[in-house]
Each structure stands twice: as C-alpha cells, then as structure tokens.
Amino acid sequence: MPMESGFSSFFLMALTALAVENVIFFRVLGLNRQVLFLKSPKMGILYGGMFTLVALLSSLLVSLVNHLLRDSIYTSYLRAPAYFICVAIVYVAIYLGTRAFLPAVFEHIRDILPVSVFNTALFGAFYVTAINGFNIFQTTGYAFGAGVGYTLAVLVVYFARKRLAISPVPRSFRGLPVLLIYIGMLSLALYGLIGHGLPT
Asked: Taking the complete model, does pTM exceed 0.85, yes or no?
C-alpha cells in the first residue's frame, strides 16, 4: 500500500509540475542563447532529455537534503549550496560515466550537458519541492514533470522561432525581440488558462 501511494504521489506531482506551473515562461527562464536558437527539434529533445535525467537523479539527493535541513535554523543559508552540490555530483557522475563506458553517447552530450544541468529552471523546481515539504516520491515526480515541461518549452520556442522567421515582423523586432514578446504573450495566456487572474 505505501508503494502504491508513492507511485501515485510521483505521477500526481509530475502532472502538477507539467500543468499547474506556467510551463513556457518558467522554463524559458532557464534557457540560454544556445538553447533559444537550436538548429533542430532533435537537439531540443536531447537538451530536454538531459535536463530530465539530471533532474530525476538530482531529486533523489535533493530529497535527502530537504529532509536533513527541515529543522535546521540555517536552512535558508545551506539550501542553495547543497542543491548546487547535489546537481554537481550528478553532473560529474554522468560526465565521467559516459566518457568511460559510453564514448559515442559522450560525444553527443559533452557540449550540451553543462547547459542542460546548471540553469535556473532546475533549481527553481527544487525550491518548490522544499517549500511544499514534498516527500521523495513527490520530489522525484515533480522533478520529472519539470524535465518534461522544460523539453516542451524548448520545442515550443524552437517552432515559434521558425514560424516567426517567415512572418511579416517589422525589422526592429525581428529575431530575439519578437521571440521574447511571443513567449510573454503565450505565458500570460497559460497563466490565465490555469485559473489565475491578472491584478487589477
């Protein structure tokens, strides 16, 4: 019975991270120029897949950190460095593991691994799990949902950029400016879709 409730909490948190959060805007905050200007959707899936893998593996360590820091008076000071150490451990393990045992995979992920790992979307998801006091199943579920949301955001931005490139956009807005406007408008639409109202 506890295992069933663990799996249901995992999937509930994965769906929460996917549906309730403002997927596009929140995830795009974790993107850099290299991800914003991808050359193919395959690269976007590779970035998102690496992010999801690192989020899932790191969430196991982060869950332990959240448990250990729960009653500490220094929680606010220790949480950020502890999360960074958790993510760094997973990064080093994937980097060294693929280089030693999967050299063909390593060649594909060597350049994208740091970009996929060290970004604000990952750390933001971990802070949400800490603030809400999630258990290990909820933390890993939320991390998985955050990874899928990140992948969706990368792909939405890729296809939006392709569509905007063939649209009649004024010269001063072409490229990144119109892309940021598009992301902002889409974010507001999703914000309203999940039941939030704009301040009046």
From this structure: no
